[in-house]
Design a protein that fits this description.
284 residues; binds pyridoxal-5'-phosphate; Aspartate Aminotransferase, domain 2; two-stranded antiparallel sheet; 6 helices; alpha/beta; globular; seven-stranded mixed β-sheet
């Protein structure tokens, strides 16, 4: 087994890992638990692979106290893939809620339901982004591009911190200046989600804690803001209250380096009706 000198290395994203951890990983890559096979040689459907994922889920759930109504998903596509996955999934959830509401009020008339949901998409659909650095900027641009076939103006940049910092990222603007889509308590209709990047790897901007203005109100579920956070470069570096988030996603190539092939997402359980995707694809 190759060895290495201990070095001081301060990567902002990919960071150093203890040598014994890497050595154990290297050994597993060559001969996993003395099976005579490398991890790269076994089937991803084998009992061994299934157990590795189950153990990883259990370890994450225990480390972060992840509540039982959350699903831990291992995905392809890295962090950038999540920029799109979040939009597709959360907009589908938003549209499905509206469809159910319309169905309750209009009965089973599919045509009327479709007409109403299309109108509501145009009038009410908003995605709030807190742009505090280059990754949240990219995520907001991706959302705008994905929704462009439906029209413009769906992405609400609630804050772009460059505007209060001489055109450069580097600070988090006072929450009072954020222009979030008003919640129902504030007389609005609430956005499909509020997105932020907990630690902007390139710009060195980290939220000190969960933003106060995104806290749920005590007045009822409909007012709840669904918060999506990119924790790619500070995941597991501190405790977070997972129950405050609808989705946390991570590109663990930064932190859990040897599993470069995995993007790990925590997403709370939500039911999405099959008809929702059909609704979204049909032209307005
Ligand atoms: C905070 C953050 N989000 C997203 C990404 C993008 O991840 P990926 O390179 O896996 O697409 C990175 C990558 O460096 C990142 O640091």
């Amino acid at each position: 087994m190759p060895t290495r000198e201990e070095v001081a290395y301060f990567g902002a994203g990919p960071a150093p890992m203890p040598t014994p951890v890497l050595a154990a990983g290297a050994e597993a890559f060559l001969n996993y638990e003395s099976s005579g096979l490398s991890l790269a040689e076994i089937s991803h459907r084998s009992a061994t692979a299934t157990k590795i994922l189950a153990d990883t889920r259990a370890a994450l759930a225990s480390l972060l106290d992840i509540p039982e109504n959350y699903e831990i998903l291992f995905m392809h596509g890295g962090g950038s893939g999540e920029f799109s996955a979040v939009v597709f999934n959360m907009v589908a959830v938003w549209a499905e809620k509206r469809r159910r509401q319309a169905e309750n009020e209009l009965g089973g008339d599919e045509e009327k339901i479709l007409e109403r949901v299309k109108r509501e998409v145009k009038e009410d659909l908003r995605l709030d982004y807190l742009v505090t650095g280059s990754w949240s900027l990219k995520a907001s641009q991706e959302a705008a591009q994905l929704l462009e076939p439906l029209g413009k103006g769906f992405v609400n940049v609630a804050v772009d911190t460059r505007q209060s910092n001489g055109g450069k990222f580097g600070t988090i603007t006072d929450e009072e200046t954020w222009k979030l889509t008003p919640s129902s308590r504030e007389g609005g209709k609430r956005s499909a989600f509020v997105y932020y990047c907990d630690n902007e790897t390139v710009d060195g901007v980290e939220f000190p804690g969960f933003p106060k203005s995104l806290e749920s109100s005590t007045e009822g579920k409909d007012d709840e803001r669904l918060v999506v956070a990119d924790m790619s470069s500070n995941f597991l570096s501190r405790r977070v209250d997972v129950s405050k988030f609808a989705v946390i996603f991570v590109c663990p190539s930064h932190i859990v380096k040897p599993v470069d092939v995995l993007a790990c997402s925590l997403i709370s359980c939500r039911v999405v009706h099959k008809r929702t995707s059909a609704l979204l694809m049909s032209p307005l």
